[in-house]
Amino acid sequence: MIGRLGGAAAALLAYGLALPAHAELITQKALTHAVALAIAQGAVDACKAKGYAVSVHVVGRDGETIVAIRGDGAAPHTWENSRRKAYTARTTRAPSAAFAARIAKNDPLALQQATLPGMIGIAGGLPIKAGDDTIGGGGVSGSPSGNDEPCLQAGIDAVRDELR
Fold first, then answer.
1. Is pLDDT larger for residue 164 or for residue 77?
2. Which domains does the chain carry?
């Protein structure tokens, strides 16, 4: 009996020595609902001021939607496009326009990523960062070409202090 316990104790001791001495949890910043809502509403308002009806999505660190707004008069397809732009920007940690450019250059990785659910190679998505850490993404769809991104940037700029 003691031999068995001694062997078990030795095994537990060896297992315990293999564990990291100071295991730690990861501390990460995350978008709050209030900040995500301010970004989305700021983007809708910026586009509306220019006469554009848009949809906006803001996704968090995990790529899941935190806030989605379909502005008055926004076309039905803008809802899905804005979600995919936000997801693409979060996933690639870069503007969705950069992902579109990589696809246009036949970048093998981008071509593979483009087949994944939720990805899209269309401008209008931006990563949302706290310092160098990408904590989310935003996407706007519905304005004429080249106008989605500036509207989204206006929403992000409105909460710049909260993203530090």
1. 77
2. 26-163 (3.30.450.150)
